[in-house]
Design a protein that fits this description.
The protein is α+β, with helices and mostly antiparallel strands. It is built from 13 helices and 40 strands.
């Protein structure tokens, strides 16, 4: 269904398909690449239509052949990254009841091994209770989900995906007898919450269109078809997920889309375990809860009352109505609350102020605050409250683009922190060899766009630059440490992150200004950042990189301003935006209407999405060199998006710059599974980038 010549890339055949939407005719020559049998393909890739599979295989063969000369540098980068990670390592043990739990990694093993020991014993007497490597052996693709201990610590429920389709399977292991039970739960989202008496667990079931739409309870020892449905979400625009409060008293069912949420709870201590509504959903109002057992209340993180960057409220656990909610931590303009947790004596709040994270510890008795922050210009910060509600300490995680991860033990009462683990770089790393910088580009409307930059101190001006961006869903790209990107930086590349609108680096409004009818701001910001780097003599050739919705950013940017960029890498790119958001059978489409608009109902949304959708705006013009990747069983951004995009680009572009497509036929949205396979994938992309920037031979030592 395509033509192929050893000297030319695959040329996809054209088959015109026309349809009318809002009385406007849409034409698509490559619609045939989309298999209408896609639901079945997610679970069984071998059912993909032969003509489509043939074309995908031809693209892979072409890419493999033409880039085969990069294999030596790929292998070198793979070894470099591998030598920068501590292959044999252990996590810090975490106390949960009468046990300490931790994980370890072994040399040449793709997955971690889970171990535990009694709290009155020592790590030397620990035992393996779950080995992901052993469980992965029957499968070509294997991605661990979660591992969930029952409250009596005698049972383990664990989940895995063996297709890349994110349909997770749940198995149950009797830890005392070291054997699996017959229980086998399929088509889940991978998470569970155990009942307090350990007779079963709650889970979220995916429907045929890959939407997490139903809450079920599974009784141990019974078949899945006997499981009880507790809740079913009728609105396809809302997804479900479950958790439990740190106090263990409540199961929490979160029902949400991108701008609205609703929470229901089950009191696990009651015999009649019925769902209870916290507050009915109201469009654009978001909230989440945590249980404060000592004060018989819920703490609520919400944007209610125009608290655009969120505030903390409280209500008695028996008085759930919104009219009973009162402020606990009032709204403060310019300070975004990103996360919070509640322990027996303390409340932990994570905030973002002026683009920098900080942690605020609040004493529940006197409401006194202690602020934890660091002095670097740009850094990443996070915390983990642990598994025990009564804990009097937390872990703090700190890194920067130059500083490997530091883990602190922080004593809440004493307000003291100490380093308990430093990320080790076996091959060596000297953070003093690098410059970090936060600069600002002025966008088309006067907004200051932050750019985080790392480079070696001996890197000259106007160096080749990798500019990374995302800019959707309110996801902030943190300036954290990465061992892999050193393979670029140590060869003379500048690495820059554009914190464009659509993320939440500068608060919720930053996100709102980059979604729906403001989406063009994301692309303009990104292009502005690239132009700024050139103007300031920081960069000469700009390579851009993004994945998923970041792939949309890449596709739109090279349509709008192709001459600005030297090279583009788009991983699992969301580029066929208009067609996808018009298809309400696809897994993510209904929830996505809150992010992009609904082109089915609203012509104005249809017109606006159509104005930037990368696939629909490919022009007869020059384009930079492009590498795109996709996963055949990807349920989020389907394989045909990248495939159609590349086919159309080849049919339209007017230059001789090469374009490559790599489809992973045994992988989904996250690419290859396993830590070494992921390094190989990164090595392939980085080798490609170095080649296009003439940096393959140049190398610096640390």
């Amino acid at each position: 269904m395509s033509s192929i010549n050893k000297n030319y890339p695959p040329k996809a055949r054209k088959k015109l398909v026309k349809r009318k939407v809002h009385n406007i005719e849409l034409s698509d020559h490559f619609d045939w690449i989309r298999d209408n049998n896609w639901q079945e393909v997610l679970n069984s890739p071998n059912v993909l239509k032969k003509n489509i599979r043939k074309y995908i295989d031809e693209e892979n063969k072409w890419t493999d052949k033409k880039l085969s000369f990069l294999k030596p540098i790929e292998k070198k980068i793979f070894r470099e990254i591998k030598n920068k990670i501590k292959e044999e390592d252990t996590s810090i043990p975490e106390k949960d009841g009468d046990w300490f739990y931790y994980s370890e990694t072994k040399k040449n093993k793709e997955y971690s091994i889970l171990r535990r020991y009694k709290s009155n014993s020592s790590r030397k007497k620990s035992a393996v209770y779950h080995d992901w490597n052993k469980e992965s052996k029957p499968y070509k693709y294997f991605k661990p989900g979660g591992a969930f201990n029952s409250s009596n610590h005698s049972l383990l429920a664990w989940s895995f995906d063996n297709k890349g389709s994110e349909f997770y399977q749940i198995r149950v292991k009797d830890l005392s007898q070291r054997k699996h039970l017959k229980d086998n739960i399929k088509d889940t989202d991978g998470s569970i919450v155990w009942s307090l008496n350990n007779d079963g667990f709650y889970y979220i079931k995916m429907d045929k269109n890959h939407r997490p739409s139903s809450l079920y309870f599974h009784l141990l020892g019974t078949h899945q078809n006997k499981d009880i449905e507790i809740y079913n979400e009728k609105d396809s625009g809302y997804f479900l997920n479950i958790s439990e409060t740190l106090s263990k008293k409540y199961l929490v069912l979160n029902i949400h889309n991108h701008e609205t949420s609703e929470v229901r709870i089950i009191n696990q201590e009651e015999k009649n375990k019925k769902l209870k509504l916290i507050a009915k959903r109201k469009k654009t109002i978001e909230y989440s809860i945590e249980h404060d057992q000592e004060n018989s209340r819920f703490l609520i993180l919400t944007n209610k009352d125009n608290a655009i960057d969120f505030k903390l409220m409280e209500t008695n656990e028996n008085e759930l109505n919104k009219k009973n909610w009162i402020d606990f931590l009032p709204y403060k303009e310019g300070t975004l609350i990103t996360n919070f947790s509640c322990l027996a004596q303390y409340i932990i709040v994570q905030e973002l102020e002026n683009g920098l994270p900080r942690i605020v510890v609040i004493n529940k008795k006197n409401k006194k605050k202690n602020i934890i922050k660091f002095d670097e210009e740009i850094y990443d910060l996070d915390f983990f409250e642990g598994c025990e509600y009564q804990s009097n300490k937390i872990k703090i995680y700190y890194s920067s683009m130059a500083t490997p991860l530091l883990t602190y033990d922080y004593k809440l009462k004493e307000q003291k922190k100490r380093i308990i683990k430093k990320q080790q770089i076996p091959s060596g790393h000297n953070e003093k060899n690098y410059n970090l910088e936060r600069v600002y580009a002025i966008s088309h409307d006067g907004e200051k766009i932050p750019i985080s930059i790392i480079k070696r101190k001996d890197t000259p001006k106007n160096a080749p630059t990798l500019l990374y961006g995302y800019g959707s869903y309110g996801i902030s790209i943190s300036p954290s440490f990465s061992v892999s990107r050193l393979s670029l930086i140590d060869r003379g590349m500048v690495y820059a992150i554009a914190h464009i609108r659509g993320g939440m680096e500068k608060g919720k409004k930053w996100y709102e200004d980059g979604k729906k009818k403001n989406k063009l701001n994301s692309f303009k910001d990104f292009i502005t950042c690239a132009e700024f780097l050139k103007k300031e003599n920081i960069s000469e050739n700009i390579t851009i990189h993004g994945g998923s919705a970041g792939g949309l950013l890449i596709g739109a940017s090279i349509n709008i301003s192709p001459d600005t960029f030297h090279c583009a890498v788009a991983e699992v790119p969301f580029v066929d935006v208009l067609n996808t958001i018009l298809d309400d059978t696809l897994p993510l489409t209904p929830p996505e209407w809150e992010e992009w608009g609904n082109p089915i109902k609203n012509k104005s949304d249809f017109d606006y999405i159509g104005s930037y959708s990368p696939y629909d705006n490919i022009k007869e013009q020059n384009y930079p060199t492009i590498l795109a990747t996709s996963g055949l069983t990807d349920p989020r951004v389907t394989y045909w998006e990248a495939t159609k995009w590349i086919a159309k680009l080849r049919s339209k572009k007017t230059d001789d710059n090469p374009i490559f497509l790599k489809t992973y036929t045994e992988a989904g949205h996250g690419g290859m599974a396993g830590r070494y396979n992921q390094i190989r994938e990164t090595a392939f992309i980085y080798a490609f980038i170095l080649w296009r920037n003439n940096l393959i031979k140049r190398s610096f030592s640390s």
